[in-house]
Design goal:
The complex is a heterodimer of chains A (about 150) and B (about 425). Chain A contains five helices and three strands; from the N terminus they run ααβββααα. Chain A has about 150 residues and is α+β, with helices and mostly antiparallel strands. Chain B is of the alpha/beta class. Chain B has a seven-stranded mixed sheet, sandwiched between helices. A four-stranded antiparallel sheet of chain B has the order 13-14-17-16, covered by helices on one side. In chain B, strands 1-2 form a two-stranded antiparallel sheet. The chains are: A alpha+beta (about 150), B alpha/beta (about 425). The interface between A and B is medium-sized, with 24 and 23 residues.
Chain lengths: ~150, ~425
């Protein structure tokens, strides 16, 4: 059992490591109706999102890119979380998730509806890495808003 | 001409306290040196600070900090303008720091030392002033593939503005400049070569003397980015015969916000000013303004007086220890570090030049440098992870970023051991 390295085992939980090694929905969708690009030049994290939407719901989602363990795992878990959801649902989840990772809460964080995304709760102790986790989500928002320019969380 | 030290100097000549004299010529008393740097006693997350990010910035000996504090507590005044005691004392201290910088790199004259904010500003100054005056449409500038952004972007901007061409001398897989390819790029259109002395991303030491000789044979000027070099090796600008040499105070145990552009006097005489305003003028009327003599022509406005004084004391500190001694010690440490890290199969070095300074860039198997950096951070170890303001280098080696441990005169074998131990922990996290 790895001894606690000042919260590192909170940050790099098994779930996160698994998703980094074998990310879900790691694919390009040729027929994508929405595409989003995110890039953090200072750290080199890159993510490109592909989505097909139908009746206002994300029918299929995939991502490509390269980056640190947190950015990859975050993209992977995000794609699982938003599949089959409407834009309104996604915004609600994004807001809750953002509060969770930025530590913007007085009492216990509201994790209802976040499911597996709660694994990132520990990231608020590592403020410099928050941008890695949030990159995929800001890219998602940009794709939904059909923004042409790549986004960054730096 | 060595400027005589005048009677007003106090803070700038402040005795460098707490230096433990070398017990014998062969021993470098690193523990004694560490006592001069209070910050090294700090704990990070309950662990002793292990500072291996010296290429980014170095820590400052107490003497530098105390001299700057003393200046503000007892000597503060503006330079070059007053006739009262404090002003004359401040002027003398500021100019004495300039003399120290001149002697440190063996410039011919103090007029060849321009105080700037740092290497980046020095290069911008040359690009703006010398570049615009002497480089024309169709001319060529040569840089290398391993340059820091500060020695790429100013030239890109200049070339775009005047229609000149930027040529890039390639490097091999060891991160060494391919001299034959560089020679091919030199032609009758080349006006300037701008090259780094030591690469901040790879640690490669470039054969700058040879490059300068080759360039001068073709009548081409040479600017050397010496930011990483001055803390690690003796620089003699007359022996190198470079036209411009730039370095930053904060990389050689001095404060931030101060640096030096060395340039041959004849170029400075001919070059138009960079920034303008007070101090760089001789006389001002609305009809006509004339400029001050060099180097003041290039020092507009109130300078970073405390910074210059701090740089002077940092130079004193380095001279007291002896650059030769520092260099030998750092090389021993570098060899030790390479030896230890080579035993770890997960580590791949980026930058394996035959001539290399104590800058170790590496990647750790399939773990992103940022994740390595975070794990090391929690062990109190400060390394840099990212592209190190050298994105072209990262692209050349096909990596998004590297981890970089860069050594200085206060690092120890024990710290290298701790680095290796912490790197082994990375594997525990990323099974």
């Amino acid at each position: 059992m790895m001894q606690d390295l000042h919260g590192l085992n909170e940050l790099y939980q098994e779930v996160i490591i698994d998703h980094q090694k074998n990310p879900h929905n790691f694919k390009k969708i040729e027929s994508a109706t929405r595409v989003g690009e995110g890039y953090n030049p200072l750290c080199g994290d890159k993510v490109k999102l592909y989505m097909t939407m139908s009746d206002g719901v994300i029918k299929d989602i995939g991502f490509q890119g390269a980056g640190c363990a947190l950015s990859t795992a975050s993209a992977s878990l995000m794609t699982d979380a938003v599949k089959g959801k409407t834009r309104a649902d996604i915004e609600k989840v994004f807001e809750k998730f953002h509060k969770l990772i930025t530590g913007g809460h007085e009492a216990e964080p509201d994790c209802v509806g976040l499911g597996k995304l709660t694994v990132f709760a520990g990231i608020s102790e590592f403020p410099v890495r928050v941008k890695c986790v949030s990159l995929a989500w800001h890219t998602l928002r940009a794709a939904l808003e059909e923004k042409k320019e790549p986004v960054s969380t730096e | 001409m060595v400027r005589k030290i005048c009677k007003y100097e106090t803070g700038a000549n402040m005795k460098v306290a707490n230096i433990v004299k070398l017990a014998d010529k062969n021993a470098f008393d690193v523990q004694g040196v560490r006592n001069d740097f209070s910050i090294l006693n700090k704990e990070i997350y309950g662990k002793p600070l292990i500072y291996l990010d010296n290429s980014a910035t170095t820590q400052k000996p107490n003497a530098v900090i105390e001299a700057m504090q003393k200046y503000y507590l007892e000597e503060n005044s503006n330079v070059h303008r007053g006739i009262h005691f404090l002003s004359q004392q401040a002027t003398a201290n500021y100019e004495n720091a300039r003399a120290k910088a001149q002697q440190f790199i063996n410039a011919r004259d103090v007029s060849e030392i321009v105080f700037v904010r740092g290497t980046t500003e020095a290069i911008n100054l040359v690009s703006f002033s010398f570049g615009r005056q002497n480089i024309k449409n169709g001319d060529e500038i040569i840089i290398s593939e391993m340059e820091h952004h500060s020695n790429i972007v100013p030239w890109q901007i200049l070339c775009k503005e005047i229609g000149a061409i930027l040529r890039v001398a390639p490097i091999n897989d060891d991160g060494e400049l391919i001299l034959d390819e560089f020679k091919k790029l030199l032609n009758h259109n080349t006006k300037l070569v701008a090259i780094t002395h030591i690469s901040n991303a790879l640690g490669t030491i470039n054969p700058v003397k040879e490059i300068i000789e080759l360039a001068h044979k073709q009548g081409v000027h040479v600017l050397i980015d010496g930011a990483q070099a001055v803390p690690h090796m003796k620089i003699d600008v007359q022996e190198l015969d470079c036209d411009f040499y730039a370095f930053s105070g904060h990389k050689i145990y001095g404060p931030t916000g101060i640096g030096v552009l060395y340039a041959k006097a004849k170029w400075l005489e001919a070059m138009p000013p960079y920034q303008s305003g007070g101090d760089m003028i001789s006389s001002v009327t609305f009809a006509k303004t004339t400029y001050n003599k060099i180097p003041y022509k290039f020092e507009a406005g109130t300078p970073n007086i405390a910074g210059a004084i701090g740089l002077g004391v940092a130079i004193d500190y380095v001279n007291e220890l002896g650059l030769q001694n520092i260099s030998v010690y750092e090389n021993t440490l570098l060899k030790y570090a390479i030896g230890i890290l080579s035993e770890m199969p997960q580590i791949k070095f980026i930058g394996t030049a035959k001539e290399k300074a104590a800058v170790i860039s590496f990647v750790y198997e399939d773990v992103h440098p940022h994740d390595v950096g975070t794990i090391l951070d929690r062990e109190g170890i400060a390394i840099r992870t990212g592209h190190h303001c050298a994105q072209p280098v990262m692209e050349r080696f096909g990596v998004p970023a590297t981890c970089r441990a860069s050594l200085a005169l206060y690092n120890t074998k024990e710290e290298i051991d701790a680095l290796a131990k912490a790197l082994a922990k990375v594997r525990e996290v990323f099974k």
